[in-house]
Request: fold
Amino acid sequence: MRSNKFFYKLFILIVFLSFYSESRELSIKQLEERKQSDLERLKEREKKGKKKFSKEISISSTLIFLSKERKNPPVLSNLDPILDDEGFYGVKLAIDDNLTTGRFVGHDYKSEFHRVMLNENLVEEFEKLIKAGNKFFIVDLNEEEIQSLFEIPGSRDVLIINVRSKSDSLRNENCKDNLLHIPPSYSILSDALTQYLVKKKWNKWFLVTGPDQNDKKYSEALKKSAKKFNIKIKKEKVWDFTADLRRTAGKEVPIFTKGEKYDVLVVADEKGEFGEYLSYRTWDPRPIVGTQGLKPTSWHRTHEQWGATQMQNRFRRESGRWMTEVDYHSWTAVRSIGEAITRTNSNDVNDVKKYLLGDKFGLGAYKGVKVSFRSWNGQLRQPVLLAAPRSMVSVSPQEGYIHPKSELDTMGKDKPESTCKF
Reply:
């Protein structure tokens, strides 16, 4: 497992290399300007040095960001770079934000970044971190990997915050009382999208599902949302083409979408293997929504309301790229822990967890309302952005959806529907 220092050096290298990988979009002059501004910022930070605490440190907390190396799958488009540093800058900014208050009250925060390599065992490496005395974990892992962490007896004595997996299973039958979730679940995303489609009176769907397991999970959530909001799925198909769509989409897509009349084409294609090639090629001219086209998401680069522009600019100055969902989730996870420690004046895991799941917790997270955790399954309740590739379209919950506790609970599984039993 790579240590904090090595990981930091690695990402400095990645930042510089990324400028060259983006040469298809930027001129040589722009590339040089970016490199120069990065060096100037680095020198400025070194001049400032570490800010002093105005009060003696009484609580020191270390937060572990745990991720796993991935084999990069082949992509249909080279427009979007493959990021190796998702979450890193989100954690870094959140630590700075925590210290803004921490320096006045004597609370120190540190972060360590650990990436489990392909030839290493995730469970064994996680066990080493627990034995080293670490208590707070932000994990950038998939559903199966998160479940494997709980094979270790000591895993029930730490707080784990998921920043990637959208699995409904982790929030229901496989939930844990010390596992919190920042990303909206598939059921929350599908409900958020469906509310908007109902508003637009797009009540007849053509549902296209990809071959990946996550595509199927998202598709199942979309079907449940359709039933919940009285939507008719007029046609449903599984995308199983293996041809290179860059060359064949103009022929394949019209034939694939010909037939039933529908209002909107709903797509479940998490990896982006085919969804982008459906636009403008369907037999009937219809809008595309889901994982492509109009997309429900926790964060988007076009989001500017409620101070989000400030966050976007801070992140870009630090990283040289746009903030992703995982970056935002990581920032929110670290800020949530910091807020709990500040309010309780304790970094005991049980105290922090109790406060986060209680009614008093609320965090300003650039969404217009304070976000909080659902006490029954550890899911962060938050507004969901509905964004097109280059514009923000709407925010769910849509107007008119009411709830006795929070309108945010009109999306996803409410307490009576939840199968989570802490």
Notes: The radius of gyration is 22 Å. The CA atoms of residues 146 and 312 lie 29 Å apart. Confidence is low (pLDDT under 50) at residues 8-26. The chain is about 35% helix and 20% strand.
